[in-house]
């Protein structure tokens, strides 16, 4: 978003970044390879959306030795660990799925509004109403496959074969308090 020198000192810079978690980690990893002193760091999560959370980071750095690249072999090992496939975004809320397959799922309840779950008779098929649209198992919601509809949540899996993320949408309130017709 921006980079600017601080007013009170000409050798310290204020950098502001808005990105997803992986891009932010990439920036921090690149910064670690340079001869700079990090003198301040702050991070804030923006409002949850249907996608991964956007983070705004404020970093204050002071370059040393013209911010030359450091020649430390261990830095490459740290970089590889940061980008490991199993590394998870700590800014995404996880819910342990006790009603489904037991997998930990990213809770995206704040991004969607589950307003109802109906069971069709005699088949027993469940229909979930999310943001005024009805979904059944096999439907797709924003690139996520509906894999199960229970009485109080909808379970989804990523359609992206490179990612194995699992998601859950729950009622924003306890469903027993919702007026029934």
Spell out the key features of this protein.
elongated, Alpha-Beta Plaits, 39% strand, mainly beta, 2 helices, 181 residues, four-stranded antiparallel sheet, disordered C terminus, SH3 type barrels, 13 strands, six-stranded mixed sheet
Tell me the layout of helices and strands.
Layout: E1 2-5, E2 13-19, H1 21-32, E3 36-45, E4 55-63, H2 74-82, E5 94-96, E6 104-107, E7 114-119, E8 126-130, E9 133-135, E10 140-141, E11 144-149, E12 153-158, E13 166-170
Parallel strand pairs: 6-13
Antiparallel strand pairs: 1-2, 2-4, 3-4, 5-6, 7-8, 8-9, 10-11, 11-12, 12-13
Helix pairs in contact: 1-2
Structure description:
The model is unreliable at 177-181 (pLDDT under 50). It contains two helices and 13 strands, in the order ββαββαβββββββββ. The protein is 12% helix and 39% strand. Helix 1 (21-32) runs antiparallel to helix 2 (74-82). The longest helix is centred in the N-terminal third of the chain and has 12 residues, at 21-32. The protein is mainly beta. Strands 5-6-13-12-11-10 form a six-stranded mixed β-sheet, with no helix packed on it. Strands 1-2-4-3 form a four-stranded antiparallel β-sheet, covered by helices on one side. It folds into two domains: 2-82, Alpha-Beta Plaits (2-Layer Sandwich), CATH 3.30.70.60; 94-177, SH3 type barrels (Roll), CATH 2.30.30. Strand 7 (114-119) and strand 8 form a beta hairpin.
């Amino acid at each position: 978003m921006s980079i600017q020198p601080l007013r009170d000192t000409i050798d310290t810079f204020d950098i502001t970044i808005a990105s997803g978690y992986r891009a932010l980690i990439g920036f921090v990893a690149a910064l670690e390879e340079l001869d700079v002193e990090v003198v301040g760091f702050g991070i804030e999560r923006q409002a949850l959306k249907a996608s991964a959370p956007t983070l705004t980071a404020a970093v204050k750095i002071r370059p040393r030795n013209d911010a030359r690249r450091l020649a430390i072999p261990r830095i490459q090992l740290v970089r590889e660990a940061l980008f490991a496939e199993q590394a998870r975004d700590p800014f995404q809320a996880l819910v342990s799925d006790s009603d489904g397959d037991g997998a930990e799922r990213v809770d995206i309840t704040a991004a969607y509004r589950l307003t109802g779950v109906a069971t069709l008779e005699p088949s027993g098929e469940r229909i979930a109403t999310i943001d005024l649209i009805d979904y059944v198992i096999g439907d797709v919601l924003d690139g996520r496959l509906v894999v199960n509809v229970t009485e109080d949540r909808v379970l989804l899996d990523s359609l992206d074969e490179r990612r194995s993320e699992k998601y859950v949408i729950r009622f924003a309130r306890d469903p027993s308090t919702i007026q029934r017709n």
